[in-house]
């Protein structure tokens, strides 16, 4: 944790969530949402005499000293991210819903700034596998700082508890966001977005009839959900919009990838595929890459040379800085400004 200021916020939120979790017969994640709502409301909510009066007094003592105005949106997001990590451990939340590391959000933000130089306000950002909102909120906060523009977010997920957490966290960060609790592969209300960024869940999508509406659907059997989500996300972009997707590093190496490859080469600009540092992942099988796609439009064209490579380990700062410089050089010689 970077500073005592942030640590004090996390410590209070974690202690309050843990205290409430001891009282209520609900998940740690739901308790975190309740604590966030209580902090925003300025009082501890009670239902049917729960939590006890003693717990209300203990929670009040933890939350009352917190001055949210003393924290930036990023500090609030980071504090809740740490609480979320504990919730995942306590509740046994499945691997597809784990927290995306902040380094990945930073790399995505960097890639966006190499494409978007003159952003219109507000910059419309979406994530159709948003989960807790941690990734999209990190990208929104960092793009606001890097580009000096207002951002507006669209979040879609079918997990009600995670989306409730995203709603609470977004309100506390005072972000301009709209959330949809739905299957992201059903019809979406969101269109014309500037940017989609998503750490895609990996696995098969069970609704074969719905999957048939997509060019990336499997010819037989269940389709890969991450293939379908890439296509759905790109549909929601404006012409020239940018799609950044964290995908399995072997995404194009399976037989099921034929449909994805055909759709991508026929309908999108394939701008890059960058392997993430090995140190981020416990096993080679878990390793991910950052896929960079752009929707064709008046101010977009296929890069003369697709951006390929591997991000060095962050610990090797000289190599990491050199790699970022290479990406900037690639951008200057291959892209038109969006």
Can you give a write-up of this model?
This protein has about 350 residues and is of the alpha/beta class. It is built from 11 helices and 10 strands. The protein has helices at about 5-25, 30-40, 55-65, 75-90, 100-115, 135-145, 160-170, 210, 225-235, 260-265, 315-335, and strands at about 125, 150-155, 175-180, 195-200, 205, 225, 235-250, 270-275, 290-295, 305-310. Helix 6 links the parallel strand 1 (about 125) and strand 2 (about 150-155). Helix 1 (about 5-25) packs antiparallel against helix 3. The chain is globular, with a radius of gyration of 21 Å. The model has no long low-confidence stretch (mean pLDDT about 90).
Features:
338 residues; 10 strands; two-stranded antiparallel ribbon; globular; alpha/beta; eight-stranded mixed sheet; 17% strand
């Amino acid at each position: 944790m970077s500073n005592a200021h942030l640590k004090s916020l996390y410590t209070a939120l974690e202690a309050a969530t843990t205290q409430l979790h001891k009282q209520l017969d609900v998940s740690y994640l739901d308790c975190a949402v309740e604590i966030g709502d209580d902090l925003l409301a300025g009082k501890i909510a009670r239902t049917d005499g729960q939590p006890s009066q003693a717990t209300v007094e203990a929670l009040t003592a933890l939350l009352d000293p917190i001055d949210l105005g003393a924290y930036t949106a990023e500090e609030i997001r980071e504090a809740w991210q740490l609480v979320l990590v504990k919730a995942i451990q306590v509740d046994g939340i499945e691997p597809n819903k784990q927290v995306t590391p902040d380094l990945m959000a930073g790399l995505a933000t960097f890639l966006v700034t190499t494409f978007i130089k003159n952003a219109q306000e507000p910059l419309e950002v979406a994530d159709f596998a948003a989960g807790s909102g941690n990734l999209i909120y990190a990208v929104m906060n960092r793009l606001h700082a890097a580009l000096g523009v207002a951002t507006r977010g669209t979040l879609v997920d079918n997990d009600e508890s995670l989306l409730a957490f995203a709603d609470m966290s977004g309100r506390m960060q005072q972000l301009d966001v709209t959330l949809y609790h739905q299957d992201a592969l059903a019809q979406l209300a969101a269109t014309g977005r500037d940017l989609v960024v998503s750490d895609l869940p990996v696995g098969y999508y069970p609704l074969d009839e719905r999957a048939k509406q997509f060019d990336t659907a499997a010819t037989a059997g269940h389709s890969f959900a991450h293939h379908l989500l890439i296509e759905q996300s790109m549909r929601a972009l404006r012409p020239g919009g940018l799609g950044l997707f964290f995908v399995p590093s072997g995404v194009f190496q399976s037989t099921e990838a034929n449909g994805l490859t055909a759709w991508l080469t026929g309908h999108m600009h394939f701008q890059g595929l960058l392997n993430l540092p090995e140190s981020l992942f416990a096993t080679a099988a878990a390793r991910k890459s950052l896929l960079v796609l752009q929707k064709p439009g008046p101010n977009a064209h296929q890069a003369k040379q697709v951006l390929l490579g591997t991000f060095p380990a962050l610990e090797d700062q000289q190599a990491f800085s050199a790699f970022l410089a290479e990406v900037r050089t690639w951008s200057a010689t291959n892209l038109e400004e969006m």
